[in-house]
Amino acid sequence: MFDTLSDKLQATLGDLRGKGRLDEDTISKAMREIRLALLEADVNFEVVKSFVAGVRERATGQDVLKSLTPGQQVVKIVHEELTSLMGSGDSRLAFGRPPTVILMAGLQGSGKTTTSAKLALLLRKDGKKPALVAADLQRPAAIDQLEQLGRQIQIPVYRKDTQDPVEVVKYGIQAAQTAGQDVVILDTAGRLHIDEELMQELARVRNAAKPTNVLLVLDSMTGQEAVNVAESFFERIAFDGVVLTKLDGDARGGAALSVKAVTGKPIKLVSVGEKLDQLEYFYPERMASRILGMGDVLTLIEKAEAAVEDDEQEAMEARMRAGQFSFDDFLSAQKMLKNMGPIQGVLKLIPGLGNQLKDVDIDERQLARVEAIVLSMTPQERRMPHLINGSRRLRIARGSGQTIQDVNKLLTARKQMEKMMKQMGKGKALSGFAGKR
Length: 437
Ligand SMILES: Nc1nc2c(ncn2[C@@H]2O[C@H](COP(=O)(O)OP(=O)(O)OP(=O)(O)O)[C@@H](O)[C@H]2O)c(=O)[nH]1
Ligand SMILES: [Mg+2]
What we know:
Blueprint: H1 3-17, H2 24-40, H3 45-60, H4 70-86, E1 100-106, H5 112-125, E2 130-135, H6 140-153, E3 157-158, H7 165-178, E4 183-188, H8 196-209, E5 213-219, H9 224-236, E6 241-245, H10 254-263, E7 267-271, E8 279-281, H11 284-291, H12 297-307, H13 310-321, H14 327-339, H15 343-348, H16 353-357, H17 364-375, H18 379-383, H19 390-400, H20 404-425, H21 428-436
Parallel strand pairs: 1-4, 1-5, 2-3, 2-4, 5-6, 6-7
Antiparallel strand pairs: 7-8
Helix pairs in contact: 1-2, 1-4, 2-3, 3-4, 4-11, 5-6, 7-8, 9-10, 17-19, 19-20
Bound molecules: guanosine-5'-triphosphate and magnesium ion.
């Protein structure tokens, strides 16, 4: 995600970071590079211009902070400006008197239907009771697609046999409300281009549904085209926010960086993969940190929290604080990692690691082997690893089909992990993270 832009900005700012003094020339050169990097990332030309002007003005007229070098201060300014470029203002969804109605609009293939399902799942995790309404009557398969998604995640889908989406929407909202659902997400039809027919249909659906939120779904891979779509959309249908999809395939980031500045409407959600749990709330500050390679400790912590059941996590944390880390904890941690999604994505969020890991292949099969070893231990051995002597090691190796060296390695790894946990318990490792931000 945003790889080229990230690399370029990091290189430019990296050059500045150590500098004790910044003269006019150095600043000009850095601003030129930032400008080029943004243009190459397909950021809207006007947006680039005002962004660079803003950074330059603040960088030259710097109010001096004693704790930072001038170079670091520029990094801070760029981070703040990137943040306000993508956000500032409210990126939360609005919730009114139930049912809260969310209308999903967008061009064909932008990701409306899948995002509707993802959003339902996300909202259920937040404690809501969402329902889906199949109001795309253009494509015969559209209703089936939504119903299938709904079945996968056990979210009710409302449909009606009619040619009029307004009828479906009215019926769906009513039925969902009667069933006690407090959020209703409307999946609507897309078109290849913005045309009169689409706009009229959407306007009718909107007038009938009176949605609390109108979300425009944009395919971030289409770059500036997505921003153009947003602009012309907004002339006809006022939307409250944007969902950017396919960010996983967007190496440039132009749409993400321009859409707020061009339409005045915030990005509320981003979709980062095809899996149904790959929709996230959008936090401009965190995204800016990610682009600048500061990692994203907050997102990481949030993901970890969602992945483990609360009480399981509390128990584990308590043991860790006490400096204990058994193989049962090892298994929980592994499960937690798995739930967090592809491990590489998770590791990328750790400050300083992201860049180094870019070309490293992490072997998820290795994790499976580790798991096999742990599962070959008795419950008692898992709880009290110091019991595992030579003959037990041999038994565990045989039982898991691994070598005794593998078992030894794992036993050593656990000890190291326990040591690390002890330090974390004292707050050392965490304050190391915080220092980087
Ligand atoms: N990689 C990736 N694929 C995505 C993402 N979001 C959606 N897709 C894929 O994009 C394709 C189109 O998604 P749909 O949800 O069917 O799009 P739509 O806007 O409903 O399309 P129409 O109903 O034809 O207008 C599907 O193959 C999705 O799996 C994403 O964040 N990442
Ligand atoms: Mg669809």
